[in-house]
Amino acid sequence: MHIADLARVRDDVLAGEPVGRASGAGARALMESITAEERGPVRSPRRRAPRRMFLLGVVAAGLAAVLAVMLPLGGPATEYANAAVTLKTGDDFIDVVITDPEADAAIYTEAFRAVGLDATVQKIPVAPEYAGMLFGPATPGEFPSGTGVTVRGGETCASVWCGTVSMPTGYKGKVIFGIGRPARPGERYAARAPSTIGVAADGVAGVKLTGKPVSHAKAELSRRGLKIEYVALWMKPDGSGGGYDVASEHVKDDWIVDSAIKVASDTVRMDVVVPADVPMDSLPRAARPPSGWRSP
Predict the structure, then answer these.
(1) How far, in whole angstroms, is CA 130 from its chain's centroid?
(2) This model's pTM is above 0.70
(3) What's the angle, vertex CA 160, arms to CA 157 and CA 161, rounded to 5?
(4) Which residues 6+ apart lie within 8 Å of 89 measured at CB?
């Protein structure tokens, strides 16, 4: 059968006809031309058809992957996820879920920049129990008066760490985050663990130092092979105060420990209260060892 041999039917002839039914003269002629043609032998489907469908599926999947990668490049995304972290933004906050604390820092940086932050992420040494947590941020840029960035960790997480980063709306300055990694033996922690020695890990759990004289603290920590750093603290009657690092030879055994935390796997840092008869700022200062937190 040839196309030219088919009866021609105008649109106005078919208009109003139910689907699948030919009642007009032209329509019946067209139907008769089609049904009168002798049907050829029926061939079984070619075996290559499934491969064609498979290839089309692969192409479609590839296009979807390209779109998923390309979409954030047009502007800041409101949601972004990669192998290490998932981010979801609001007006002045970012919800963060860390899924792979061992991922390279560049993968975290990629995610924060995808949602519009001029961010850099560093892997920083911390106590083992804080590995995988988000620290900081350091913010070298200028903030509007009375504003800043805060990080709040979630109480329950199905992942390694989750929480919310709150920041001023429209802040465009640089932000430096830290992702905790286990510090090497003796390596100084870049971020201090928010716990006292009385509840800390690494063999000093259960040791009460706060409120005890320095002589007691030295004896307890020496038995555990731990070194001590001192901060001389001058207290005012209203409870406020201030101080700085001092060498051990300037600290007396009867001074009282105000607080103590670990700053490395082998080192404890103690704030000790200086007696009132010692003038403020009269003790020689000691240099504080640098932490692992780097500026841009």
Answers:
(1) 14
(2) no
(3) 60
(4) 76, 77, 78, 79, 95, 115, 116
DSSP alpha helix (H) spans, the chain: 11-14, 25-36, 49-70, 105-114, 214-223
What is residue 154's predicted lDDT score, i.e. its pLDDT? Answer: 82
84's tokens: 């290490």
Considering only CA atoms, which of 117, 122, 148 is closest in space to residue 135? 122
Q: Hey, what amino acid is at 292?
A: G
What six digits make up the tokens of 256?
């009282």
pLDDT level of residue 170 (50, 70, 90 thresholds): low
Q: Which residues contact 262 (CB under 8 A, 6 or more apart)?
A: 127, 189, 193, 197, 200, 202, 204, 268, 269
pLDDT per position as a tens digit, 172-209: 788 889 999 999 999 999 876 544 333 333 335 567 88
Residues 118 and 111: beta-carbon distance below 8 Å? no
Residue the block writes with tokens 């020695």: 197
Dihedral over alpha carbons 103, 109, 112, 113 (to 10 degrees): -150
CA torsion sign, 193 to 159 to 175 to 104? positive
Mean pLDDT score of the chain, rounded to an integer?
A: 74
Nearest to residue 271, comparing CAs of 212, 226, 219? 212
The more confidently predicted of residues 81 and 33 is: 81
* Beta-strand relationship, 161-166 and 93-98: antiparallel
Quickly count: other Cβ atoms within 10 Å of residue 27's Cβ.
16
The predicted model gives 88-97 an average pLDDT of 88
Q: Where are the alpha helices (DSSP H) in 77-182?
A: 105-114
